Amino acid sequence: SVHxxxxxxxxxxxxxxxxxxxxxxxxxxxxxxEQEEWExxxxxxxKLRRGKLWYLxxxxxxxEDPERTTWESASNLTSSLDLVKDFHSLYPDKPGPxxxxx
Length: 102
Description:
Layout: E1 30-32, E2 35-37, E3 40-49, E4 52-59, E5 70-73, H1 81-90
Antiparallel strand pairs: 1-2, 3-4, 4-5
C-alpha cells in the first residue's frame, strides 16, 4: 500500500488555468469532529451585531471570488482560533472576544 505523504518542498500553489473560461474548482470541505467544514483562509473584519461577535471570513479556495466572503458568528469559528488571534494582533482596535457587548 502507498503511504499518502509528500515533501512540503515539492508542493506549489495551484495556478489558474490559461484556457479561457476554465476555473479551478474550490477544495472540498474537511471533516472536523465528524462534520464537514470549509477551511477558513483568513478573517478580514469583525463587528458586534445584537451583542454577538461576527467575523468577515475568506474561505480557503475561494479567495479569487470576493462575493464568497461571509459574516460568521465567532461561535462558528472554534476550529480557526489561531486565525482569529492573528486577525486581532494585526487589528487590535477591531471588536474581539474581550470587547464589551452592549
